[in-house]
């Protein structure tokens, strides 16, 4: 949902209400002319917030004023439900779309609302609980594209495939932020006409932004003074924004001198890309009837915890150890990057989420008690990832679900409950491994890999899969990290042409370091007056006079290693 208010562009001249009325009339004519110009379908982005409501209301009123014979082109209204939206806002938007569909049919208007959702394999909980991704951060913003961009882009692409082109109508405004204003200004140079910009992400589509020059106050004036044409209450929207403001104040906007509403942002209740969820916190603070959402706020704070290294694997999802340089006061430390959440942590997140869902279903108002924080389809995909990709054949998800909800887990995936390996076999394996976590993981991977290939008609690739199990799970955490440091040091020596350091590190390789030897076996490091070759896992130094070899650069000589 859009921002309640961001800093205005101070340099922009303030318009009077009369100026705004004149602009609305001009925009109405512009929208009508653009709509009737061709057969290109429109897609209006609607979040339920003030900006998108304003744009949709402008378009609706303009099209409603056309003669019936000219309202021939479909206008798709799309809303993306990320499945982790603020529950109050999500309910508001769903009800708005229902009302919109009903009124469009009653008024014989070409508006067609669609509620979009991310693919169940790309949802927030499948990423965090299933794959073990940590909560999103600025440098690892894995959620936005999956939850918001992909669903809307898929829909628009389908429209483009059917019609060849599309015009995407958005409520973007320059006054939202300096960054937004700068981006919009750059696109202005590529415009085909006023307020029609190329869509850089989707070929054969244009972005139409009717209110790009409006200020926040002007948006509220329009919403409060012009009646909502699909029969929804803009005053309720105003109240929702007021409730999401820390001071619970949102002055009635009567002219452009009146301060506008709030400074909060509606969005995903799990969002850790902001320091705190001000809107959700303000809603709970300002209204006793919304205190039932407090568990959501508490859960989000746990997700936002800075230090989660003890809950995360020392390897990345591909099984490798990745190092990075960490700046400290006394110098630079080379450390490993924490990977996905470990098994116990992922199970704990699921248990806590189901507990919160159960709790708020008991305490929420009657009309919100069917709230779903995680769907059966999501849990089915999480279960599949744990079983097939993580090889955790103890199959803990149905057990956790029953423990928390008291109900049996009904997996919608066909054949999901059939397995030769289960909790009993896992318990035996744990006993055999005697607390050795890496040994348990390796044995589980080997057994489950064999089981998965047993079900296939052809077993092609089984040896590669078994080898991968050893590559990723045969070393302890300390050995794996030391191994990564050794690989880094060797590469650094090769890059720097440091033959002494290279010899020293190469001697540390063992029979188990086959992967490193394969990487450096054919590497030839050339420094002035000296060529170094590796043969039979031994490194030797030969002078150019002995081999009649002219010294060459590293870039030219490295590809000749196979000739030695």
From TrEMBL:
PANTHER family: PHOSPHOADENOSINE PHOSPHOSULFATE REDUCTASE, SULFATE ADENYLYLTRANSFERASE SUBUNIT 2
GO terms for MF: catalytic activity
InterPro entries given in the database record: PAPS_reduct_dom, Rossmann-like_a/b/a_fold, Sulfate_adenylyltrnsfr_sub2, SulphurTrfase_DndC
Name of this protein: Phosphoadenosine phosphosulphate reductase domain-containing protein
Transmembrane residue ranges: none
Domain spans labelled Phosphoadenosine phosphosulphate reductase: 43-225
Protein origin, superkingdom: Bacteria
UniProt-listed NCBIfam families: DNA_S_dndC, PRK06850.1
């Amino acid at each position: 949902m859009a921002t309640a208010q961001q800093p205005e562009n101070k340099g922009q001249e303030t318009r009077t209400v009369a100026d705004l009325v004149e602009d609305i009339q001009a925009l109405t004519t512009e929208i009508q002319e653009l709509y009737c110009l061709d057969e290109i379908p429109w897609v209006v982005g609607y979040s339920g917030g003030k900006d998108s409501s304003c744009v949709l209301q402008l378009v609706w009123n303009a099209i409603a004023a056309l003669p019936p014979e000219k309202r021939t082109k479909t206008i798709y209204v799309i809303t993306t439900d990320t499945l982790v939206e603020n529950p109050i806002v999500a309910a508001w938007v769903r009800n708005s779309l229902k009302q919109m569909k009903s009124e469009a049919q009653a008024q014989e208007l070409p508006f067609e609302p669609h509620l979009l959702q991310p693919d169940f394999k790309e949802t927030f909980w499948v990423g965090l609980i299933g794959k073990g991704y940590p909560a999103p951060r600025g440098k690892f913003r894995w959620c936005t594209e999956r939850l918001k961009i992909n669903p809307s882009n898929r829909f628009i692409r389908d429209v483009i495939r059917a019609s060849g082109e599309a015009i995407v109508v958005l409520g973007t405004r320059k006054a939202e932020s300096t960054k937004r204003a700068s981006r919009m200004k750059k696109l202005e140079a590529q415009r085909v006409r006023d307020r029609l910009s190329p869509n850089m992400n989707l070929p054969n589509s244009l972005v139409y932004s009717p209110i790009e020059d409006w200020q926040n106050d002007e948006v509220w004036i329009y919403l409060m003074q012009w009646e909502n044409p699909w029969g929804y209450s803009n005053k309720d929207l105003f109240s929702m924004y007021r409730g999401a403001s820390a001071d619970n104040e949102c002055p009635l906007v009567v002219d452009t001198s009146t301060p506008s509403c709030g400074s909060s942002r509606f969005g995903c209740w799990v969002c850790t890309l902001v320091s705190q969820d001000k809107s959700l916190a303000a809603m709970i603070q300002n209204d006793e009837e919304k205190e039932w959402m407090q568990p959501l706020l508490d859960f989000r704070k746990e997700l936002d915890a800075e230090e989660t290294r003890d809950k995360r694997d020392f390897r990345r999802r591909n099984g490798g150890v990745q190092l990075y340089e960490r700046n400290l006061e006394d110098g630079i430390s080379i450390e490993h990057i924490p990977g996905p959440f470990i098994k116990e942590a992922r199970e704990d997140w699921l248990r806590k989420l189901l507990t919160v869902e159960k709790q708020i279903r008991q305490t929420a108002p009657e009309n919100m008690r069917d709230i779903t924080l995680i769907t059966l389809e999501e849990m089915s995909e999480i279960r599949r990832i744990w079983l097939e990709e993580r090889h955790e054949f103890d199959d803990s998800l149905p057990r956790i679900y029953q423990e928390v909800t008291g109900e049996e887990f009904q997996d919608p995936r066909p054949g999901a409950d059939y397995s030769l390996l289960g909790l009993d076999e896992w318990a035996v394996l744990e006993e055999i491994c005697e607390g050795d976590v890496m040994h348990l993981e390796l044995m589980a991977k080997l057994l489950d890999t064999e089981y998965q290939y047993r079900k296939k008609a052809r077993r092609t690739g089984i040896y590669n899969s078994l080898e991968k199990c050893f590559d990723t799970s045969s070393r302890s955490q300390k050995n794996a990290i030391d191994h990564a440091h050794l690989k880094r040091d060797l590469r650094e020596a090769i890059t720097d042409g440091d033959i002494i350091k290279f010899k020293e590190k190469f001697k540390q390789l063992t029979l188990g370091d086959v992967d490193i030897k394969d990487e450096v076996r054919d590497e030839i490091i050339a420094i002035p007056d000296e060529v170094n070759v590796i043969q039979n896992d031994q490194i030797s130094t030969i002078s150019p006079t002995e081999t009649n070899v002219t010294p060459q650069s590293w870039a030219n000589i490295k590809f000749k290693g196979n000739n030695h």
